[in-house]
Design a protein that fits this description.
Elements (H helix, E strand, L loop, with lengths): L5 H7 L10 H11 L7 E8 L11 E5 L10 E4 L3 H8 L4 E3 L1 H8 L7 E4 L4 H4 L3 H6 L17 H11 E5 L5 E8 L4 H17 L10 E8 L5 E2 L2 H6 L4
Parallel strand pairs: 3-4, 3-5
Antiparallel strand pairs: 1-7, 1-8, 2-6, 8-9
Amino acid sequence: MADHGKRFEAVEKLVESGKDYAPAEAISLARKAATCKFDETFEMHLKMGLDPRNSAQVVRGVALMPHGLGKQVRVLVFAQGDAEKIARDAGADYVGADDLIAKINEGWLDFDVAIATPEMMGKVGKLGKMLGRKGLMPNPKAGTVVPASDLPQTIKEARMGRVEFKLDRTAIIHVILGKASFEEDKILGNMTSLVDAIVRAKPPGAKGQYIKSAYVCTTMGPGIKLDMRSVMALAGV
């Protein structure tokens, strides 16, 4: 394995080995470590006390980031008839049915969030392999398959910073919290919303410690371990 560069080694020294940091302190430290010339992405990684092989312990849900994610979100809606007009009026970037499905089948994927009405899922389901690989497949559990009447609110939330979280094969949840350029209180606000959503999504089959550990970091920065008591306090636990 290649050694880290001098820049990383320098910022790594900012983090005290073996220390668990309170969320606000960790956020401040991670921002100081974000010394690259581009605006690094702020990330949170949570090790869960769940078995991803057990269907009763799989967790998946959506968190609304009150301060956004620091990027323009392109919203696509699969809809037709009255629902298509509602989606267009609500400001969706791309709206359609068979035309969009054909375009995606040809390899076009220039959007960030895909939403569909229930009536469209019979057709959209055929795109599962292509959209699933990119995390773009509409899903009722993720709140991206909604009736026409809910399209305006769902599109609005997607633009705000509506992020999906789910347990991966290694029992970890990876989520973006925003950009390193964000003010610290905004990153903390997004983190609070995320932790609250994950706690609320706790599956009935979960046993033992639900969230075992949590780290924050920026794209090119070191991981900073969080104090779990302080993390759970964000959700009032």
